[in-house]
Amino acid sequence: MPTGNTNKSPLESYFDLRNSYTVRDVSFGYESIELFKMLEEVEKGQLGFSIGAKGEDLTGLDDGDWKKEWCVIGRSSLMGDPIFTDLSNLDYPIYTAAVGSGEWKPKLISLSFIKFMEALKLMEAYSSSIDNVPLDENESYSKSDAHKVLMEIIKLNDNKISVAFWEGWLIPDVL
After folding, report:
1. Cα(first)–Cα(last) distance of the chain, in Å?
2. Is the overall model pTM greater than 0.85, yes or no?
3. pLDDT tens digits, 105-158
4. What are the two backbone dihedrals, phi and then psi, of residue 124, each rounded to the nearest 5 degrees?
5. DSSP letters of 64-121?
């Protein structure tokens, strides 16, 4: 578990870790994940999740409520679903949840921010490896290669994550 200055807020500690990585967005197929790089982006990203349009607190303690410790750190471009972390856990596990369902049902997509960044690097490398393959030679990409990347991401996260997020991104027609 990362350690740091205990005088820092959880958000400041997260940003120390976040700013040690240069990745801002990763695209593959129709999906792109954008990670906020600046504090102002993160603050604006909380609107509609933990903060309402008039500044009201939208968090709660009941199942399905947005939790006070959750912080949106990015977005999925396809559906606009939030990518968020739990600031009360210094490993900064990464979650997503469907927008518009009436309640929040978080899906764990990475055990930690560090593992999430490693998974995004795998996605970037895979995407780059097929960028120059003509579509008529390879439908769009090899499903067996995509499956290998998926297995690496699952292994990286000790088989303890929601596979549907990664599977839907790598092999969209399986869902």
Report:
1. 34
2. yes
3. 999 999 999 999 999 999 999 888 876 655 555 455 577 888 999 999 999 999
4. -60, -45
5. TSBPTTEEEEEEETTT--EEEEETTSTT--EEE--TTSSS---EEEESSHHHHHHHHH
